[in-house]
Design brief:
This protein is α/β, with parallel strands linked by helices. It has helices at residues 11-23, 41-53, 68-74, 88-96, 112-124, 131-141; strands at residues 2-6, 28-30, 59-64, 82-84, 102-106. It has a 5-stranded parallel β-sheet, with helices on both faces.
Length: 144
């Protein structure tokens, strides 16, 4: 299960990615927002992050205007490794080397086609483990 959420700045891109998830058979839970009315991104970043941290959802996708604000909110939750990506290579490496569990995208930064590519790469890339396992453990040991 994939947790998904956004603020008003990421709403349109979230809708595009929901279509991608549906077309590709992914199960997801939408934590809002559900329209373009101005709202506060920390609330939605936290909801998705808590769903991932608790194990209720395996991974999370978050959207705001740049991806930055909502990633900051998500990273406040212990056990979350949220990344902002604007191209597929960083998305791949965030999974391969950092075991990122939340991907954040900017609705005002990347278009729907590129966003689908980024999400596709991120969802299909596995964590390598090995030497990276120690580093991820060190990240997780830092208190938020």
């Amino acid at each position: 299960m994939i947790a998904i959420g956004c603020d008003h700045g990421g709403f349109a891109l979230k809708q595009e990615i929901i279509s991608y998830l549906q077309q590709n058979g992914y199960e997801y839970q939408d934590f809002g927002t559900y329209d373009v009315e101005s709202c506060d991104y920390p609330a939605y970043g936290e909801k998705v992050a808590r769903a991932v941290a608790s194990g209720a959802c395996e991974k999370g996708l978050l959207f705001c205007g740049t991806g930055v604000g909502i990633s900051l909110a998500a990273n406040r939750v212990k056990g979350i490794r949220a990344v902002v990506c604007s191209e597929p290579y960083s998305a791949e490496m965030s999974r391969r080397h950092n075991n990122a569990n939340v991907l954040c995208l900017g609705g005002r930064v990347v278009g729907p086609g590129l966003a689908e590519q980024i999400v596709d790469v991120w969802l299909h890339t596995e964590f390598e483990g090995g030497r990276h396992e120690r580093r991820v453990s060190l990240l997780d040991s830092i208190a938020p």
